[in-house]
Specification:
alpha+beta, 14-stranded antiparallel beta sheet, lipopolysaccharide transport protein A fold
Length: 195
């Protein structure tokens, strides 16, 4: 198609224009490149803290207690400290064998792997599927037996009214298949009749 002279001229033309085109493309990359923003810098202090204190993000733990209850624990973060996990923004969901569901939320907590216990500290909020809503200073749960005990006094909104008590114990008696809530230590009830 091309004569020898035309071909040589075409190749000579490409030898000049292709490097110039590559140079033009490279210059546009540097011309339009943005300066780094303040947000894109690496937070070295945070990286050092994470390296010093290893942590888990969004951990979840599930199991079945001796009474047949299904226990699900979750947290925003967890820091291992020996055999204990120190957790933040902890939630627990317990589905008992009789169908009752208990949801618990607390700001902080600990999970002890050796003793199979979980302790929720700070203000703990407990809600059951059969209409009970409670707040207390802390809750301890045995992950093997499914037994739950409040650390101190609590306020309760129940289907039949409001009550306060010194302690709450939720457990499954040996003679029963369902969980029982026991309010004890100075129970005071304000009964609200249902219409």
């Amino acid at each position: 198609m091309f004569g020898d002279e035309s071909y040589s001229q075409f190749v000579g033309f490409l030898k000049v224009t292709l490097p110039l085109a590559a140079l033009a493309l490279m210059s546009t990359i540097f011309l339009f490149a943005r300066a780094p923003t303040q947000d894109s810098t690496i937070p070295y202090a945070e990286i050092e803290d994470i390296a010093r204190e290893p942590r888990l993000s969004g951990p979840q733990l599930s199991g079945v207690a001796d009474d047949g209850s299904i226990i699900n624990l979750a947290a925003r973060t967890a820091k291992p400290q020996g055999d204990v996990l120190s957790v933040e923004a902890m939630t627990a969901n317990i589905q008992s064998a009789d169908g009752t569901v208990i949801d618990i939320r607390a700001g902080m907590g600990e999970i002890d792997n050796i003793n199979n216990t979980a302790r929720l500290t700070g203000l703990a909020h407990l809600e059951t599927s059969n209409g009970y809503e409670m707040e207390t200073a802390g809750i301890s749960a045995n992950l093997t037996t499914g037994r739950i005990i409040s650390d101190g006094p609590l306020e309760v909104q129940a289907p039949f009214g409001a009550l306060t008590a010194g302690q709450l114990v939720i457990e499954t008696p040996d003679t029963d298949t369902g969980q029982v809530m026991v309010f004890q230590n100075g129970v005071r009830l304000v009964y609200t009749p249902q219409p």
